[in-house]
Amino acid sequence: MSNADLRGNRPLSPHLQIYKPILTMVMSILHRITGAALYFGTILLAWWLIAAAAGPSYFDFVNEIYGSILGRLILFGFTWALVHHMLGGLRHFIWDMGAGFGKEAREWLAKATIIGSVSLTLILWIIGYMVR
């Protein structure tokens, strides 16, 4: 026996506007955003490699663009997205191994991902400028 009225009275699934944002939810959204940003960064990396293969004048042109303030900001953002996405992947790997599901562990992993991604990005850029 089927009752068509039951279907019409069912509650709708909650949307993001209803949920109170929590850190793990924000981290999930950031993980998706950084994954999408890596596509753009990969195009930048491919352009730089193509410029290196094209010859010195074109390579200098691309390096001039990447060396500008806007270019460095974009490259810094790409570096952060890469590191953040990598650490988010490690967080997911820990969950895949069956660990880190407790509330304290989830919060700690989320905070460690944020702090770690910012710290590692700054360290990488400091080392890059020191070597340069």
TrEMBL record:
Subcellular location: Membrane
UniProt keyword terms in alphabetical order: Heme, Iron, Membrane, Metal-binding, Transmembrane, Transmembrane helix
Top-level taxon: Bacteria
Residues involved in heme binding: H85
CDD domains: SQR_TypeC_SdhC (cd03499)
GO BP: tricarboxylic acid cycle
Major localization class: membrane
Cofactor note (record): The heme is bound between the two transmembrane subunits.
Gene3D superfamilies linked to this entry: Fumarate reductase/succinate dehydrogenase, transmembrane subunit
Ligase in keyword set: no
Any one Gene Ontology cellular component term annotated for this protein: membrane
GO molecular function, one term: electron transfer activity
Membrane-related topology note: Multi-pass membrane protein
Cofactor annotation: heme
Transmembrane intervals: 37-59, 65-87, 108-131
Subunit structure: Part of an enzyme complex containing four subunits: a flavoprotein, an iron-sulfur protein, plus two membrane-anchoring proteins, SdhC and SdhD. The complex can form homotrimers.
Task of the protein: Membrane-anchoring subunit of succinate dehydrogenase (SDH).
UniProt similarity note: Belongs to the cytochrome b560 family.
Record's protein name: Succinate dehydrogenase cytochrome b556 subunit
Origin organism lineage: Bacteria, Pseudomonadati, Pseudomonadota, Alphaproteobacteria, Hyphomicrobiales
